[in-house]
Amino acid sequence: MEIEQTRKETGKIYNIEDIAKELGVSKTTVSRAISGKGRISKATTDRVMEFIATHDYRPNTLARGLAKSRTYNLGMLMPMECGSMDFPFFQECLRGICEMAAKYNYDIVICMVSGKDLTQLQRIVTNRKVDGLILSRAIVSSAAQKYMKEKKVPFVVIGPNSNPDIPSVDNQNRKASKELTSVMLMKGLKKLALIGGDQTYLVTESRYNGFADAYKELGKSVNDAVTIMNVNGYADAFRAVDEALEKNADGIVCMDDVICGEVLGCLREKGVRIPQDIKVASLYDNHALETSLPSVTSIRFDTNELGKKACEKLLELLGEKVETDGKVPGYQVILRESTQIL
Amino acid sequence: MEIEQTRKETGKIYNIEDIAKELGVSKTTVSRAISGKGRISKATTDRVMEFIATHDYRPNTLARGLAKSRTYNLGMLMPMECGSMDFPFFQECLRGICEMAAKYNYDIVICMVSGKDLTQLQRIVTNRKVDGLILSRAIVSSAAQKYMKEKKVPFVVIGPNSNPDIPSVDNQNRKASKELTSVMLMKGLKKLALIGGDQTYLVTESRYNGFADAYKELGKSVNDAVTIMNVNGYADAFRAVDEALEKNADGIVCMDDVICGEVLGCLREKGVRIPQDIKVASLYDNHALETSLPSVTSIRFDTNELGKKACEKLLELLGEKVETDGKVPGYQVILRESTQIL
DNA sequence: CTGAAAGCGCTTACAG
DNA sequence: CTGAAAGCGCTTACAG
Question: What is the pTM assigned to this prediction?
Fold first, then answer.
């Protein structure tokens, strides 16, 4: 009560010198008590900490930053033109990142990059507005990575990464794909069609491998399946669906939610009923798949956790002592109407 | 070429003192040349600026910040639990904000707030990580606003705002609603039903007024329409649609995209065809309305521009000289299949 | 028009 | 265990 009073009356914002004076010690001592570094007696530490708590003192981040050459900000690269499909991913991810960053008293600054234009990245880096950066699979631009290496800015990548030198975190695409495919197979489906996108993407490869793993485990060959890759856009999808139907597929596994949306459109257009005539599943979930008619079986990754891990990794890179649980971001296989056996 | 060389060889990061020495002037002079403030000869300014350009010097933001008590960061409050519906709004908005901020060499830091929990806001404020804040209609919490006033942190609100003391920017809800409603009326529809949400929201009021304006302009009374407010959730929407149909409405105007989605669901469930049996329009657009079957007539606001304006306003509050064009964020009325006269 | 000096609020060798 | 002092890289009265 009285403390509140004091705060309200004075409204004063203390600095380290004020505290030193009030307590009759040196700034050095106060600084040490706060940081917990250097030799300092328990008694002094306690006195300082109590004063700080009572007066709700917060060190000036700018000043500390200048002294330690730190901004206590982390940059998150976001593609300006991410479609409505991608955005939920970023939202979730950002949530996890912010949460973890806050835990260590860091904040997230957004860096919107447009295509191959690195202007904004350069601005943020040359202005030293961040201590490190997080970028995601959606930022294809290896130019960005090259730039950051050159400038020696620590960064982590969210998504598949072939280069072991680059710290990265990723979903368990392969494992999850295998699991979903296995379920389809065990449901008694005889002929699966896998419809996937650009094969040069690593995520495509991972999911493909997972799909194949499921066959292998059952003593079958992935060649028993119809695999149609490099599908890009509705026209491609339409042809892919045609091929799947011609080859008598009784189940279609779509590599991601975008493709799946297109496939659903094609099937509707052709008057093929789901799940009566054919089962459909997606290796990446989104809200539309959940609410569409019928709802579509899919894999939901724990993107929030993925963001947290990315942030943790970056913090570690920056020399913060993070206590990580070493868990890998999980996923759920969600069986919905589109794969029901009637 | 040679400049490149120099940069690469040295890789040196200059500070203001280095420059002063190299040029045989004082730090003061260099600082003045850069800021463009204070008396200084054109000749000296040019020399300094040339050196800076050649060596790609960037003032240390942290140091400047400490001296001027500025972070050159703006905070953007984001609701943690914004649904998939809300997010496109934030994405667009954020784009505009970032773009404008970058123009004045500010950056955006994200502050995720969850419900009424102000922890993150307090953290960012007491740590002085931002010079000001932008919050949007989705942050209902007036507690947040109260906190910021108390702490004297400048902020602007995106969305309807009754309090004229609080700087805010908003879409032209009333005008846009009137325009869309007018079009419906002029298409010859005899009985419109307006289905809206919580009447305590200011945005609801604005849109309602716009709807009424259209009637007034045609010399009619809004009482000719069926208005059903405070609709919240599918069950409510179902009853509202029932009522509209009973009263022989030949057109339904939904106050926002969420309600519209529900109304579409209800109509489908009831076997009412759009636009054959009834026309449907929404006073707020989203991707689903654009791609649904049939596509739905709607109002698309220029959210990107809205974000820019919000940022401009905040920058002005912070004392930056912004050159604004005084334009108001626009909108488009997009007539799609759902209102076609067959 | 220009500069020396103090100041922004921290951290951290260095010396006791 | 503690403190005086220098330093982080800028800005800005103040004095010329």
Answer: 0.88
